[in-house]
TrEMBL record:
The keyword Mitochondrion does not apply. It comes from the Bacteria. Keywords: Membrane, Transmembrane, Transmembrane helix. This is 6-pyruvoyl-tetrahydropterin synthase-related protein.
Amino acid sequence: MSKYPNTFLLTAFFSIANLRSGQILARGDFIYHLQRIESFADLIKEHQWFGLRNFTTFNQIGVANNYFYPYVYIWIWAIPFVLINNPIVLYYAGLFVIMLTGLALTYWCVLKYSGSKYQALLVSVFFMTTPYHTFLLVNGAVLGESLACTFIPLFFYGLHKFFSSDKHNWQILAIALTLTAYAHVLTFLLEVIITVGAYLISLFYKAHRLMRFISAVKAVILFAMLTAFFWVPFLQEWLQTDIQTTVVLPNVAWLSDFGNLITLMLTNASLTGVVASPGLASFIGLILITVFWRKLDFEYRVIGIFGIILLLCSTSLFPWYALPSAIQNTIQFPYRLFNLVSFCLILVGAHVVVQIMQKSRKLAQDSVRPLFLFFAIIGGGLVMYMSMLSFNNRAKLTKIPYTQPTTLKTAFNTDYKLDKNNYEVALQSPRKFFGTIDYAPKPTWLGNHQDTLITHQVLVNNKKVRSHFETNSRMITYHFKLQKAGWADVPVLHYGNEVVKLNGRSTSAKMSQRGSTLVKAKRGWNTVTISAPLPWTFKVLLPVAIITWLGIIGWWIRQRKTNL
């Protein structure tokens, strides 16, 4: 990898070229993840370090999305937000790190798999600059899935080591699944489905069957030790409260027919702005697989077929609408398969290109022309990437106005510019964005309950009473006065594991019809404080994960010394 750091740095810098404008284009999931980062930053500033509920962000209604949405990388990203008072630069620095890590990790995995530096460079550059990855990372700020994409090459390399070796090579697969689970649950579930499917197919082969079973058990145990601190509280909260994860769709959305997807791939999905597509590099990989099929060895054929199957499954050729609605609402968008499609097709396509280069070099006894062709291909890929970024960022940033302080009427606004002067506006309430009440109790999704919650309305008999509140990263306190004793509906989501205090004393509470906290208040002034301590399971299992990671690092260092 030491020969190509400049290529990786250049590609990663392209991703943050818009930093020079000093602005962020707030689109898609940006506000959602920004509020998660700021919530963790508030916890760290107040020396609370970590929390699973959001009391200072997400309209200060106590959303519990950290129970259900992985947070490891977001928490790490929040640390610089505490140390450096420049959120615009820090956001772009995070994108740079994601991109650079993805390039380096893809290069290392493909190099270990193929033994070819040229193939590793081709795959790393073209995989990390596909339109779909650009759509996630830059256009839509879908940071969880972008982070998960970074570990797809490690996952495939782990699969290769697990199934192709006659030794107990299970550690890489377990670590790859762990790193993915730290980022994005759906990508993790797709990888689990692939792993289980591959394992079941391997049972038809008698060789090393017992060894694979033992290795699989070890991998599951290691994965559990590294991730139980997330999964156990997740399951506890899921079983305790009837929640709705996100907007329920009648069917999967944005499902392309095969012809339209091919058109998007041929145009690199960027004629009218970056949209979801595997991209031109994947299409070229598909053509190379078809033309040179007979010259591919068995493993590359398997990868190519798998990529083609996933490509077909991402279109209307697959009977998505015939699946149960629960499955359709879990996947939501079939284009989520594009990262897997791109890696498979680009990996095999790059292998064919390198084989052609090597054969050309032998026939012509000339190493200059093949190398010139190789770097021309890399350069062409970078030009395509720059064109996507140029169209999608600079042009739109000149058209989208700055946001203004919101009212309920203008609360939903996901297309605007942020800079150091108006950054704080994005954190003010009331504000609606994609994911505002994700993972809230189901009643919250009904009627206009969201509106009364994000405007901080204390209700008595469905009528608003005057109130004010103060909040910090661990709790929120409401003050209000009643003309007579009665049930007061405080605008903080109720999951059942909160600590509720009324006028300084612990009290019982229940869920109201809008999914918030209902308490029996007295006549006169009342003070209601709601906090959400960390579950004991998290406190026990997090040290287990940390100790396990330290053990893995120690084992790796010892292995390195032994090999030297």
